[in-house]
Amino acid sequence: MKFILSWALIILVVVRISAQEKKELFFADPTIYVDGDTYYLTGTGGQKDQPLGFSILESKDLKTWSQPASTSGSVHMLLTKGDHVYGERGFWAPQLFRNNDTYFFTYTANEQTVLAKSNSLLGPYRQKKVAPIDGSEKNIDSFIFKDDNGKFYLYHVRFNNGNFLWVAEFDLKKGKIKPETLTKCFNQTEEWEATPNFESAPIMEGPTVIKLKNKYYLFYSANHFKNIDYAVGYAIADSPYGPWIKQENSPIIHRSIVGENGSGHGDFFEGLNGQLYYVYHVHFGQDQVSPRRTRIVPVAKEWDAANNVYKFKVKEDKVIVPIMEQK
Questions:
Q1: Where is this site: Important for catalytic activity, responsible for pKa modulation of the active site Glu and correct orientation of both the proton donor and substrate (predicted)?
Q2: Which of 217, 206, 159 is nearest to 184 (CA)?
């Protein structure tokens, strides 16, 4: 009888774990946009059986997510392949932002960065002229930053025997970079950026930039995304172009900190409670990379008076595992 009960208990646990996995979110390279009292989440991949492009979910508390209330079908798509947008494959790494009364959506497709726009946060996002931002060479992982003076900058990845971060001033109206301003951010220099667990060329990607007290903070991921040591660090500069000083307390997100492999490539946002958060992805499990799971972690910033900069640290004991609301 004890043997039978033990196996019944094991089966019950497995069922519960399977149910939890089915409810979990599987957006890689995620980003969260805050509008009013609601959070909106999108990223690479996402929802089962969705068409190529980007779907979106909404939440009031960051923990439980659902389709937007206006969704008529099973999945709400912000942008869909073929619907007046560039790209046939490899829809990756999106970013949502607003300027004046227009919403913008930047993403990667066909290993090119792309910009589409809409009059509505929930889209659909489209292009008047279907084309990438800069078709002169391959470039991925776009992040558009608006400075206090109204100028825009495109942070992104370019390939040259590896993945390296670059920045250029960006003309939002034309949707193009100013080529004469194109500047490489930095090279691979730190031990944590190149661990031997998955051999690859240098890889630095997934940029996010914020500005605090006239300092620019560039957060990025390093190592190949299949590496268990994929992680997030940051660098600080006095200009959008650098020079960037990498911080000694990097990485701030790593498996040794958050407890899951392949933790990285996400975005910062401020919560409704004023708390700073970083949304990111992790490997599916110890021995499997994809589909990658979505995670959200609160971030603490502390003023370093000696160096006149903020230092960042995640609250690793408060990682949020977002789940899909069960109808």
A1: 141
A2: 159
CB 314, CB 297: distance < 8 Å: yes
pLDDT in tens, 231-283: 999 999 999 999 999 999 999 999 999 999 999 999 999 999 999 999 999 99
Residues 6+ apart with CB under 8 A from 72: none
Q: Which long-range contacts (CB under 8 A, 24 or more apart) does 73-76 make?
A: 74/49, 75/47, 75/49, 75/50, 76/122
Length of the chain as a residue count: 327
List Cα–Cα distances, 240 to 4, 146, 235, 244, in angstroms: 64, 10, 11, 9
Angle CA 129–133–138, to nearest 5: 125
pLDDT of residue 21: 54
User: What are the Cα distances from residue 66, in Å, to 25, 71, 122, 223, 278?
Assistant: 10, 10, 14, 32, 20
Q: Positive or negative, the Cα torsion across 287, 110, 134, 80?
A: negative
Q: What's this model's pTM, rounded to 2 decimal places?
A: 0.93
Q: How many alpha carbons lie under 13 Å from residue 198 in its C-beta half-sphere?
A: 16
- The answer to whether 310 touches 302, Cβ cutoff 8 Å, is yes
* Residue 69's pLDDT band (cuts 50, 70, 90): confident
Q: List, in order, residues 6 or more apart from 327 with CB less than 8 Å away.
A: none
Q: What is the pLDDT of residues 93-132, one digit of tens each?
A: 999 999 999 999 999 999 999 999 999 999 999 999 999 9
> Could you give all domains of the chain from N- to C-terminal order, each with its CATH number?
2-324 (2.115.10.20)
Active site residues: 29, 205
